[in-house]
Amino acid sequence: MKTEIVSSCERLEVVALLRAGESVGLPTETVYGLAADALNPIAVAKIFEAKERPRFDPLIVHLPDRDWLEEIAYVPAQDRQLILELASQFWPGPFTIVLPKREIVPDIVTAGLGTVAVRISVHPVFSEIIQAFGAPLAAPSANRFGRVSPTTAQHVVDELNGRIHLIVDAGATTHGIESTIVTVHDGKIDILRRGPITAEQLSEFGTIDIVKSRDKVSAPGQLTTHYAPKTPLRLIEDANSFSPDKNQRVGLLAWNPVKSGKTFAVIRCLSERQDLREAATNLFRYLRELDARDLDLIIAEQVPDRGLGAAIMDRLRRAAHRPLDGRGRPE
Predict the structure, then answer these.
(1) Which of 195, 210, 225 is the last residue of a domain?
(2) Same domain, 28 and 157
(3) Cα(186)–Cα(237) distance, integer angstroms
(4) What's the CA gap between 329 and 67, in Å, rounded?
(5) Would you place residue 9 in the very low, low, confident or very high pLDDT band (cuts 50, 70, 90)?
(6) pLDDT tens digits, residue range 176-235?
(7) Could you tell me if 21 and 163 lie in one domain?
(8) Of 97, 86, 112, whose CA–CA distance to 60 is shortest?
(9) Which of 19, 61, 52, 9 shows the shortest CA–CA distance to 165?
(10) 232: closest CA among 279, 186, 277, 297?
(11) How confident is the prediction for the chain on average, in pLDDT?
(12) pTM of this structure
């Protein structure tokens, strides 16, 4: 299979492929997604196959508009007002709500769970295509499972070339990290995955709880190890105090000003102005660039663990978490 890259104006070709049960790479405001008809289990299976994604990890269902919400999910009566307030405030946008699913949603989408994660994208290209398609799309990040998420069409090519028919190129994504995921119960908001909509923003609507990463998932993006480059990554507070081993090629993902560049083979600064929005936009792109430089190690400086910085740190912690082999050593 040859993967074709097309401009955002090729709407008819994209919609035709989706209706034929194929998966296509589409831009969203967060990262590039691998989209397929969410109500067609065979089409959804192609997402799992292309990404090598385990079937226990559920997908987010993107809705064409608010009218689809209660076609796909139940909105519990006791939390209905809060859920609809959150949807009104943050949709369309990088915000996902987990709700009890309706029978129309195939089990493969939800990994057999009784809940479904739903959102509405604000990206103009994605919005145009899903509205023309006229039904929900499942659209996880368009990368192989566990790898760094793609923020450009070229990143999707690097990950999935030959595995999917088509990628729509609409330039770099805006936010650079995946959507915030929440669930609501008894008037409280649980944050299942941090993202562009921050805990501080959500706290204006009710009591907030941050759910820790886990090996048993209840929503997308909860695994302890995720978003990882091939090169081992280590988190530190200040790179100026770091000394590499002899002959070790080390790359730096910097947050603080670097006093001496001689220590590192390659340096990428998340934001010279220490702007967290710019840092989030650059995060996955710079991780990919460092990963391509034949390094022995990537050192990533911690960013302030608040607001959008908490979402960046969430991704860095998971990228740095290396699973152990049978002898207790990093794989």
Answers:
(1) 210
(2) yes
(3) 38
(4) 50
(5) low
(6) 999 999 999 999 999 999 999 999 999 999 899 988 765 566 777 666 667 789 999 999
(7) yes
(8) 97
(9) 19
(10) 297
(11) 91
(12) 0.92
